[in-house]
Amino acid sequence: MQSAPERPRLAWAVTGSGHYLEECLDIVRELDEVDLFYSRAGEEVLRMYGHDPKEINSKSRVYRDRAASAPPVGLFYRGDYHTLVVAPATSNTVAKMVLGLSDSLVTNVYAQAGKCRIPSIVLACDTEQEIDTPAPDRTVRLWPRQVDLAHTHKLRSFEATTVVENPERLLVAIKLRLAEINK
To answer: Which CATH architecture has domain 9-181?
Structure first.
């Protein structure tokens, strides 16, 4: 495990969705103090969309989902992070968060951030009845299931969790959080 940063940073978790992926990466590239946490699917999807997971932000530490016990959660215990962003968040990840399942790096860091009272901002992919989303080679129209929309709605009620619907609101939520901690 790397040494602790001089001051707490932003933790950014990427799951296996192409929806809003490019917009999320644009935000990550502009941040100075951010570390990246990739689910297995997140790392896979980044590659499918033509990105090298190690090259998203040259100033970031990168953590991958390679161990059953998710050792990077210890970084939350020692105070390395002030905020967790999960973006984009698949319906699978959102469902696991709602049900309290911690079986991947991303769901583990979300659970541990909550237990450490570290606020989370989640860009859920399934927030509308109908969406157009980019696939690696075309745009696809999707109709999220009611169960997916219900999980997103339920996650909004979780303590220390802000759910946003699009990259513009994600950026606003991040800026508000950074202003709050930099007072």
So the answer is: 3-Layer(aba) Sandwich (3.40)
